[in-house]
């Protein structure tokens, strides 16, 4: 089974009040080309489709049109979308019945029929162009640990998340008589993951041990952490694909989607397809420098070169009160967009007077 793994699109995200929809549309166009070239059996989107739980009408239209183009690029491909912590699970599911006509399965929340949990909702069979089974996707949306359902009265509160994962994998095993590959997708923070550039202030600080994700999957398609990485100790079976576009200046790593070739019982074969950002996030300079030197770099920045810019300034104390005005004026009339000044306080070297006195 061939999988395209992507997550954390954050459609509708703005950067210091600058509209980023041209970049996001560019990503969706690149994604469409990648799907047309790779022709995956399934594309999994592991949460945070939107940046805000109440996306604008324009952002929702961009998503709808983008997904329809992706579908047209490979009509037989299954698409599975699971909600992340930035998404509204209920709003994401509003059009789920309609989306099924385009091969898109949307899993926004955990559904209960009375006291019974609808496990079948989370298990999606993937078929090839001829309608033959290729594998299974087990889709789990973002749910805070304390909100996972109690599957039985004997379940300890601290184990209900891990037992829910395992119950789904056990249910999938019953269906999987041909021993086809199984992909588990989730939006959460796994212990030991590299959280470089990730904003810890918006949910998801709680971590989950990889062993608590259960047994029985061949690949774990993770979302939520923005740095692309395989999870240590997983033998390449657990991976964050990362953001396709940087959400902050601190996401200085390459951005991509992941392509996984998967066979039952074998180590996944993973490659990436890089996403080019037409308006990159640039820090001037790389290392902190005095304000006037950083300002000079901004003044010399090529007029026709698009970018979001922040200045990396070394300071002994407070910056001049007109520093933002000077920076804004330096960027005026250029294709670049000035955002803000990152400051680093200079460490004062010990003076003779501050050194300890040695009495001999």
Radius of gyration equals 24 Å
Order of helices and strands: EEEHEHEHHEEEEEHEEEEEEEEEHEHE
| Number of helical regions | 7
Apparent shape? globular
- Adjacency order of strands in the biggest sheet: 6-5-4-1-17-18
Task: Report the β-strand fraction as a percent range.
Answer: 25-35%
**End-to-end C-alpha gap:** 77 Å
Plain-language structure description:
The chain is of the alpha/beta class. The chain has helices spanning about 20-40, 55-75, 90, 95-100, 160-175, 290-300, 325-330, and strands spanning about 1-5, 15, 20, 40-45, 80, 105, 110-115, 115, 125, 135-140, 180-185, 190, 205-210, 220-225, 230, 240, 255-260, 270-275, 280-290, 305-315, 335-345. About 20% of the residues lie in helices and about 30% in strands. It has a six-stranded mixed sheet. Strand 9 and strand 10 (about 135-140) form a beta hairpin. Helix 1 packs parallel to helix 2 (about 55-75) and helix 6 (about 290-300) runs parallel beside helix 7. The longest helix has 18 residues, at about 20-40. The chain starts with a strand and ends in a 15-residue tail after the last strand.
């Amino acid at each position: 089974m061939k999988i395209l793994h992507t997550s954390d699109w954050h459609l509708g995200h703005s950067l210091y009040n600058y509209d980023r929809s041209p970049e996001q549309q560019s990503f969706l166009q690149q994604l469409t080309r990648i799907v047309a070239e790779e022709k995956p059996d399934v594309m999994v989107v592991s949460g945070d489709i939107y940046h805000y739980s109440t996306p604008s009408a324009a952002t929702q239209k961009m998503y709808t049109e983008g997904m329809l183009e992706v579908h047209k690029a490979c009509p037989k491909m299954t698409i599975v979308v699971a909600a992340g912590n930035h998404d509204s699970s209920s709003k994401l599911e509003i059009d789920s019945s309609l989306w099924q006509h385009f091969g898109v399965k949307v899993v926004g929340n955990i559904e209960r029929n009375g006291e019974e949990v609808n496990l079948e909702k989370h298990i999606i069979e993937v078929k090839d162009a001829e309608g033959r089974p290729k594998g299974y996707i087990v889709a789990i949306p973002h749910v805070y640990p304390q909100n996972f359902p109690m599957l039985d009265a004997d379940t300890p509160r601290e184990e209900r998340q891990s037992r829910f994962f395992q119950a789904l994998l056990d249910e999938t095993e019953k269906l999987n008589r041909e021993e086809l590959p199984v992909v588990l997708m989730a939006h959460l923070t796994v212990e030991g993951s590299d959280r470089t550039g990730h904003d810890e202030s918006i949910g998801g600080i709680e971590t989950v041990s990889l062993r608590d994700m259960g047994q029985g999957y061949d690949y774990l398609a993770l979302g939520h952490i923005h740095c692309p990485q395989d999870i240590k100790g997983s033998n390449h079976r657990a991976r964050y694909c990362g953001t396709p576009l940087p959400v902050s200046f601190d996401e200085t790593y390459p951005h991509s989607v992941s392509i996984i070739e998967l066979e039952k019982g074998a180590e996944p074969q993973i490659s990436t397809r890089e996403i080019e950002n037409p308006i990159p996030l640039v820090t001037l300079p790389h290392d902190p420098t005095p304000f006037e030197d950083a300002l000079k770099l901004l003044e010399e920045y090529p007029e026709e070169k698009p970018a979001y810019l922040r200045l990396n300034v070394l300071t002994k104390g407070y910056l001049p009160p007109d520093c933002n005005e000077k920076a804004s004026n330096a960027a005026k009339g250029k294709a670049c967009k000035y955002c803000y000044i990152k400051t680093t306080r200079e460490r004062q070297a010990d003076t003779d007077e501050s050194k300890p006195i040695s009495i001999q």
